[in-house]
Design goal:
By secondary structure, the chain is an alpha/beta fold. It has two domains: about 1-110, Alpha-Beta Plaits (2-Layer Sandwich), CATH 3.30.70.20; about 135-280, Rossmann fold, CATH 3.40.50. It is about 25% helix and about 20% strand. It has seven helices and eleven strands. It has helices at about 70-80, 85-95, 100-110, 185, 190-195, 210-225, 240-255; strands at about 1-10, 30, 35-40, 60-65, 135-140, 155-160, 175-180, 200-205, 230-235, 260-265, 270-275. The strands form four sheets. The protein has a five-stranded mixed sheet. The protein has a two-stranded antiparallel sheet with strand order 1-4. Helix 1 packs across helix 3 and helix 6 packs across helix 7.
């Protein structure tokens, strides 16, 4: 068995209401003896679609030894539940950037002669959007008069984490895009006004996250979104330059010529340097 992320259920907090059950299209949960139970490690992908639907907060993610998740066994179970559950499962994988699992699921459907449901078709309400934290939303940034001295949020979308944003999110289409290291908004007090206003944003950490997954997802976004510009904002610490590198790699993979600006921020929140990167300078 391998050590991996998987859900755990606090029996003391669980009331057995069953709200988590329809929000686990993988079929990993059942109500047994009045409590929600994880019936098989094989069916739990550890992405947590069920967590936001537990009114008691009884479900969390832990890291422990568990049998490897088996996407093909999951799909065999999901297919029995019909096209709406298939669609919900595929959208759950897309929203979390689980590209390997998604490809296995699509391969299984193709082998079984089953057409993958249209991602644009509505799923039932209890599945719609998958994990609540990954539900795609677009909204207007605050404008107009605000209380004196109070900063105004310029965020126009949700989610913002690169791992959660689907490549075809509507707010990415024809956008001016900011790709920022996740420490930057903490260091730079004027981040919203200086960098985010009027733009879409993707947030990530090149030191702690899977940069190969970043590269793949960014390449898909660059190919599909028709971006107007890209601003990469990163910290002065050496590991943070990895964000610049992965963006350049993804641009090369996508074969797209999109104007790019690089801004380095000091740990005191000041702009150290800002440069424009010509397409010919990219890898």
């Amino acid at each position: 068995m391998a050590v991996r992320q998987i859900i755990t259920i606090d029996e003391g907090e669980c009331t057995g209401c069953g709200e988590c059950i329809p929000n686990c299209p993988e079929g990993a949960l059942q109500i047994i003896d009045g409590k929600a139970r994880l019936v098989s490690d094989l069916f739990c992908d550890g992405l947590g679609a069920c967590i936001g639907h537990c009114p008691e907060g009884a479900i969390t993610i832990e890291e422990r030894e568990a049998e490897p998740y088996d996407e093909r066994q999951v799909m065999a179970n999901v297919v029995k539940q019909g096209p709406n559950v298939i669609r919900a499962h595929l959208e759950h994988l897309r929203a979390h950037g689980a590209t390997d699992y998604l490809q296995e699921a699509l391969d299984y459907l193709r082998e079984q002669g089953i057409e993958a449901p249209d991602a644009e078709s509505p799923a039932p309400a209890h599945h719609q959007g998958g994990c609540p934290g990954a539900r795609v939303m677009e909204f207007e940034a605050a404008d107009g008069d605000q209380p004196t001295g109070r900063a105004v949020s310029q965020l126009r979308q949700w989610p913002v984490q690169l791992a959660l944003v689907p490549p075809m999110a509507p707010y990415l289409q024809c956008a001016n895009l900011v790709i920022t290291a996740d420490c930057v908004p903490f260091a730079c007090g004027s981040f919203h006004e200086d960098f985010l206003k009027g733009k879409a944003v993707l947030v990530g950490c090149p030191k702690l996250d899977d940069v190969s997954a970043y590269r793949e997802k960014l390449a898909a976004i660059f190919e599909q979104a028709g971006l107007r510009s890209i601003d990469v904002v990163y910290m002065e610490v050496p590991c943070c330059f990895g964000l610049v590198h992965v963006v350049q790699q993804a641009l090369a993979d996508a074969g797209e010529d999109i104007p790019v600006a690089l801004t380095k921020i000091s740990i005191q929140g000041e702009v150290i340097e800002r440069t424009e990167v010509a397409a010919s300078a990219r890898p």
